[in-house]
Specification:
Elements: H1 2-20, E1 22-39, E2 55-61, E3 68-78, E4 81-92, E5 97-98, E6 108-117, E7 121-129, H2 131-138, H3 149-156, E8 168-176, E9 183-190, E10 212-222, E11 225-235, E12 257-267, E13 272-282, E14 289-301, E15 305-318, E16 334-348, E17 353-364, E18 392-403
Antiparallel strand pairs: 1-2, 1-3, 1-18, 3-4, 4-5, 4-6, 6-7, 7-8, 8-9, 9-10, 10-11, 11-12, 12-13, 13-14, 14-15, 15-16, 16-17, 17-18
Main location: membrane
InterPro entries: Gram-neg_bact_OMP, Gram_neg_porin_domain, Porin_dom_sf, Porin_Neis
Keywords: Cell outer membrane, Ion transport, Membrane, Porin, Signal, Transmembrane, Transmembrane beta strand, Transport
Length: 404
Amino acid sequence: MQKKLIALAVASLASGAAFAQTNVTMYGIADVGYIYSSGDAYRGPNGNISSGSNAFSGLQSGILSGSRLGFRGEEALGNGLKAVFTLEYSLNLDNNTGVGSGTGGLYARQQFVGLSSATLGTVALGRQYSPGYIATVNNDPLGGALVESQSYLSAQAKMTITPNSAARWNNAITYTSPNWSGFSAKGIYAFGETAAANGSYNDKLTDINANQMFGLGFNYANGPLNVDLVYQSRMNVVNADKSLVTGNYPPGTDNDINEYYVGASYDFKMVKIMGSYQKQNDKNWTNFDSNLWSLGAVIPVLSASNIHLAYAQLNMDQNSCGLLGTGNGNVCGLTGSTNSATLAWTTALSKRTTLYAGYVWNDNDKKSITPTTGGLGSSAGPVAGIGALGQTNNTLLAGIRHTF
């Protein structure tokens, strides 16, 4: 009996030593709030207002920060090398979806595993943030909040340099450098893994070079100053309407979509200012070239509160409608812009709990367009479904965020 107890004690100590080498952390964010958004009905080229309402009232998950549940960990492998992993999944607190409840599988924000060295950097494989995600969060007064001006305009312009899902890339390999006196860099390559219409990967039916993505980002962060430079490209983009096996558009004949970004912020303590400019060059069939600039500020007030200010303008350019022809009325051959302003208040009740409230103003001119699957375009707005050509809409919001 005594031998058994000794054996159990030794096994327990050995097990504890093994577990001590692997650190796993569970973390998450629970964020939900109320949104009311309304605007004028669509105004046509003659100024007439169409019938129908244009309003939304309800709860929304992840307004300030996307609600999530995640696990990350590392294991020391010796000689300064360690294995790392992250598994992070989206949660929608308002309608009981997320994690494993999606019809297409998990709502994964990140899923990767890799090797990391303090002197050599980190290589990781899986679904990961592109450099554009990190840069836009760095230089945004609300850290890439769902309804903040730069955030929703970049998302609705189909940019991948955005603090939203388009900046999370599947099938990706990344390299992240160490920090060299404030300088760091990140590179990402994502395989297209394009299947033919029949679901096969026969090289006679599909192009293994289609739909690849590449990105490179540079960051300098030292004291109050932060600067980001980003280049991202979607290569040999195969549009949904161009079959891989039939028609006049064989694989590999589509064009790249290239994006460029520069952003910076400086913290004067009494106020933190920031700004960014980005451009998307898309020479595919809808020819949605665009550029987006933004300015912002964070002003500390009282002991644990901040005022957040932002202004952004999205300029869209559809000079040619390609396959759509010329019969699309207000869309083809036009350029337009959307202007947005955000005013928000955040108050930290503790290190983990934040109350917030805000107002978003959005104004689309009569030629304002953002791309859709069909290519006909629709106007921008901070709430899905609220936004039309020639429309001004207003959004009020308030909520609570808790991190753990």
